[in-house]
Input
Amino acid sequence: MGKIENKKELNNGYFAGPLVNSKRTIYTPSNFAKSNLTFLQEVGELTSIKRHTSFRENLSSFLFFIVTKGSGSVKYLSEEYNVQPGDCVFLNCMNAYEHTSSSDLWTLKWVHFYGTNMDAIYEKYKERGGKVVFRAPDPKIITDIIDEIHTIADSSSYLKDMEIHEKLSSLLLNIMKESWNKSLNDNESSFSSEKRKDLRLIREYIEENYNKDIRLDFLSLKYGISKYYLSHMFKEQYGTSVNNYIINMRITKAKHLLRFSDLSTTEIANRVGYEDVNYFIRSFKKVENITPGEYKKKW
Output
């Protein structure tokens, strides 16, 4: 959260000041956590006493907070958002941001965190249609996770960096779930619902027929979806292209056969949909960085 001046620290992480009361834990993770985990920087709950504005920028941190009472506004990347109870905010603090309580004084629960992979995760969030502000379908799930992080951070557990990493991963999972297909506008929402059902059917078809010659044109015709829409929505929903999904299915099945059968490489290639064994070997190596023969020896 932003800087609040003239505050007084009370017992057990409680702070009181002319503008806000808060309970927060400022956390210092281990070097191991900083290098390998998603790690906590600060977690807390804040209640406004008077209207106030907080501002930050150039901070190596990601901020997530949920409004539990009252209302306010957030300015981020030249946009301003009004937020109400149940609204969540997720932003990259390297960019300038500002949040302001309204006269309907708010209460927030927040967490500042970071990790070596967080920039890529946030970019994936945005790519999937994630927004700076979104409405939580079940705010209690979010607030419970933040409360659990706070409890762990204040504990004496020698495993708390790992426990915090687990809870932050759970938070990110819930945030990422909310980003699916958010790029569609409201007029497309019912259409999206039907087409997402088709996407599940397409995925199931691929999983049952991965060893056949499946092309985008065929799937587009079979399910009545344009190739562009199918490509775009499949990648948004499942995080990979249709072609890569098919390849990964084939390689996964091939690994199973390499480990648990006496079939030759040529026979396995044919079983998983490759007529040309050399093409199968190249595809396998591209995915696994070793040849099928090397995989079989290692495993």
